[in-house]
Amino acid sequence: MRTLVWAELRGAWSSWLAVLIAFIATSFAIVLALLLLDSMNATIATGQVPAVQAPALQFIPAWNLALAAIGTLSVIGAVTGLVVQSRRGALARLSLAGATPGQVSRIVLAQLLIVSIGGAVLGSLFAIALQPAAMQMILGDRGVAAEAAVIRVSPLSIAIGSIGFVLFALLAGLRQARVAAAIAPVEALRAASGVPNRRRGVARWIGAGLLTLAIIGLAVGTTTLAPELGPDGADSVLQVSVICMLLSGAVLSLCAPLTVGLLTRAWTALIPSRSAPWVLARAAVIAKGERLARTVTPIALTIGLLVGLGTIVASTVALLAAIGHPGIEGTTLVSMLVLIALVLIVSISGGISVVLMMSRQREAELALAGVAGATPRQQVLITVFEGVIISITATLLGLVMTAVGMAVFISGLAALGLQAPFVVPWGDFAGVTLVCAAIVIAATTLPILRSLRRPARQVVAQLAAE
Fold first, then answer.
1. What is the pTM of this model?
2. Is the pLDDT reported for residue 321 higher than 50?
3. Start and end of every ABC3 transporter permease C-terminal domain (predicted)?
């Protein structure tokens, strides 16, 4: 069994390497938040921090930990699911060679355990190295001298974060291991090069419904309770708005690929272009609904959080200006990133990992296009257009998340007797979407350039042999 595990791990090294990127980022976010929370408590205990700033300094790492945990739900599920689907052919051959469903399941879980432990170790090392810089950023944002920082590297915090992450990864991978064990060998061999669209289970729709009810409950609860919280009412409205944005992203993820596929099919149908690269890219993206959904979700979380929080801040500034308030002192990009930095790292790494994981599959698709007569330039354009389609769909879903968060924010402030305008910072919106699009296009295009130097038939033959 040990030999099979390591052999499969080596055979799928490119897919697991992509998973490792997401795992490092996720464990880094969790461990760093725990280390910051411990160090911040030690810093406050010295008495060098103004009492008025202590609650905010304790809140920031705890808030980041909660957001990172929510973001991790989507990212780990996406990357572990695609590993199994990208290795359907290899898993089928194990079954044909006599491996039982239980053995196939244990092989997948063993590989996931190895990669998650590696991600936890590397993520913890990065967290330890970057903890001082993170402490200085948080303290500086609150106007506290960096010299007051007490940096503590707590073995207990590292152990809790690392072990918790590994257990969480195994829990997320348990369902995928069962999926791997249930693959019909002959059917999987026929579909070895593709990622099939699985029919959404009833449990996923139930989960989406429960999360929707949770969003409604949070919105109603905030509207009802905010007036009773006094000066803290506005802060509570802001926090709940961001949480609702994240939860709405999880709802969209659970409803995918139906929602993502329908949205992509709808807006791409409005593009009148009939060029071969665009037509092929659109057809490939729509046909690979599962791949599209898992790729779009983390990018949508990133765009939704950045644009949503920017819109909330811009709307708040406009409200304060309308009532004659001088404004929010120190409201900068750094202030925004301090609140959502870790969940952004988790989301971006998840999107990049999913895109990179599917590079082998794209090589096969482009090679087939080359056999059919597509030129190298057209093959590159196909991947570029695929990145564009992913980015635009993610942006549209991010705007849905922003709309949900703003709806909660505006209704909560209305309960406080404040009428906040809906102000979209178009410059920030354009910058965020362009950066995310550049990252996605680079991730879809750069990994396949090497395969274009080889004859298309050779690429197809090699991938078929695998």
1. 0.76
2. yes
3. 66-180, 338-455
